[in-house]
Amino acid sequence: MASRGSILITGGAGYIGSHCAKAVAEAGFLPVVYDNLSTGHRNFVQWGPLVTGDVADHDRITATIREHNALAVMHFAAFSAVGESVADPQKYYSNNVAGTLGLLRGMREAGCDRLVFSSTGAVYGNAGRDPIPESAAGPTVNPYGRSKYMIEQMLADYRAAYQFKSVCLRYFNACGADASGTIGELRDPETHLIPRALMALLGHVPDFAIFGEDYETPDGTAVRDYIHVDDLASAHIAALELLLKGDAGGVFNLGTGTGYSVREVLDAIRAETGEAVPSVVRERRAGDPPILVADPSKSESGLGFKASRSDLGHIIRSAWAWHQKAHPRRR
Ligand SMILES: NC(=O)c1ccc[n+]([C@@H]2O[C@H](COP(=O)([O-])OP(=O)(O)OC[C@H]3O[C@@H](n4cnc5c(N)ncnc54)[C@H](O)[C@@H]3O)[C@@H](O)[C@H]2O)c1
Ligand SMILES: O=c1ccn([C@@H]2O[C@H](COP(=O)(O)OP(=O)(O)O[C@H]3O[C@H](CO)[C@H](O)[C@H](O)[C@H]3O)[C@@H](O)[C@H]2O)c(=O)[nH]1
After folding, report:
1. Which residues 6+ apart lie within 8 Å of 256 measured at CB?
2. Coil, strand, or helix at residue 52?
3. What is the side-by-side strand order in the sheet with 291-292?
4. Is 59 helix (H, G, I), strand (E, B) or coil?
């Protein structure tokens, strides 16, 4: 067992959770992954044991926390496809909200009261502000964002009533991959811009499209704040250390403060790979805000975290290395 104790990582077989499990191990803890493998990958669990289970199963959560004497929980387990959440909200409220209630019940029964929670820039809806401070949350514009915002509010109530400590990390656009080439972004179907564009270059996405070029942005395409998954992992360690010191926690943006348009991302992909992504322009995707860029100042002052590995070229190079391994070229 690692010297500093165990951390339970729900969703640790997924994209962001596996990168954070590695960082947890590097920080001297044992990452105990708890995952039902609904979208995750068994071979992404490399730095500690895998417990196969659902977060809604509070008895199993309690038993797992007790068995490993977990000091805290990092909670990544969720469904996160915005379009699917609009088509099937029950799936999202059930897995994300009810699932988290199961986890919280299990944690309380086991006497574990520290949680780092994966929230999202989707809590800002159509924020209409750039950059966006934490105080601008709501109203949300899709069930996925609402499910995450509900959980944040539950955690605030738990803090007030039970002194339950939590840090909600609102990620903007997670991207990139670990340099080892053994973990990365791997979903089916893939909906995110950078992996879809790279998979199009490799012949795995035949119908890549730019969703809307009539936004009120400099080049008409939507603007996002892209943050490398290794930076997200560092922020999780900072949040964990804060809770372990006894801090009650809070809510923090995780972004860079710099936005790139869809066309700027495609230009950067061409510059890094030497290949132009074959694309057409389609109508806007339902529920997409024009601009989402984080104000990172609160995470800098409150967590001591500043993104340092989120240069767009580095993001694309690391993602490209991963996708070439994960999706061998078809054409
Ligand atoms: N990828 C992004 O850009 C992004 C942005 C903001 C927030 N997030 C949030 O970060 C977290 C991780 O996202 P990801 O991109 O790594 O997704 P992912 O699908 O790769 O990982 C989610 C993991 O959770 C597991 N899981 C799902 N439901 C579960 C349940 N009920 N019980 C146990 N395990 C369960 C899955 O098997 C998977 O391993 C999610 O909570 C997501 O909402 C992601
Ligand atoms: O094939 C594609 C895929 C995406 N896009 C566009 O690229 C931008 C980024 O889209 P992503 O799907 O990569 O990411 P989102 O901004 O929609 O969502 C991500 O970031 C959000 C917060 O910023 C939430 O956290 C959410 O969970 C997470 O998936 C959007 O304008 C989208 O319309 C395309 O043009 N073509």
Report:
1. 172, 225, 226, 227, 294, 296, 307, 310
2. strand
3. 260-261, 223-224, 291-292
4. helix
SS3 state at 80: coil
Q: Is the minimum distance from the CB of 173 to ligand 2 under 6 angstroms?
A: yes
pLDDT digits (tens, 9 = 90+) for 149-185: 999 999 999 999 999 999 999 999 999 999 999 999 9
Tell me, using a 6 A CB cutoff, whether residue 261 lines ligand 1.
no
Distance 193 CA to ligand 2 centre (A): 6
| Phi and psi at residue 3, to the nearest 5° | -70, -30
Catalytic residue among 34, 144, 158, 171: 144
Q: Under CATH, which architecture does the 193-225+257-326 domain have?
A: Alpha-Beta Complex (3.90)
Closest ligand 2 atom to residue 210 Cα is 35
Q: How confident is the model at residue 127 (pLDDT cuts 50, 70, 90)?
A: confident
Q: What angle do CA 250, 252, 258 make, to 5 degrees?
A: 170
- pLDDT bracket for residue 2 (50, 70, 90): very low
Q: Please indicate whether residue 39, judged by its CB atom, sits closer than 6 Å to ligand 1.
A: yes
To the query of whether residue 15 is one of the catalytic residues in this protein, the response is no
Is ligand 2 within 6 A of the CB of residue 171? yes
Question: What CATH number should be reported for the domain whose range is 6-175+226-254?
Answer: 3.40.50.720
pTM > 0.90: yes
pLDDT of 49 reads 98
- Which of 8, 9, 10, 16 most suits a substitution to test ligand 1, by most atoms within 8 Å of the C-beta? 16
How far apart, in whole angstroms, are the C-alpha atoms of residue 63 and residue 316?
41
Domain residues of the chain, as ranges?
6-175+226-254, 193-225+257-326
Q: Quick check: CB of 17 below 6 Å from ligand 1? A: yes
pLDDT, tens only, 227-266: 999 999 999 999 999 999 999 999 999 999 999 999 999 9
